[in-house]
Amino acid sequence: AGTPDQGVMIQWLFSEQYSYEPNIATVRHWLAHFGRDLAEPPFLERRRNGEAFLDLMDGHLAERAFFLGDDFTIAGIALYAYTHVLHEGSYHLANRPHLA
Fold this sequence. Notes:
The protein has helices spanning 4-34, 41-61, 74-83. The chain is mostly helical. The radius of gyration is 14 Å and the shape is elongated. The N and C termini lie far apart (35 Å).
């Protein structure tokens, strides 16, 4: 049986694949590599979902320094992957001080 921390780790890893990557990384890829228009319908839904997930991440980090426990974990590393290049997807951290 796993520990509660292992369950939270798996939650963050699944969230990275289901919410973060398809909405944040994909928008960044379309913008940075194909110069797509932000007003296109696929962008609008993915941008809304991406913004909501960034807000969730920021809210989680408002109460702790790391996503899980007292140090870096694979969850934090996975979520860092595109966070450091959010500007390339026209996302911003200015109103997300805990995530920044």
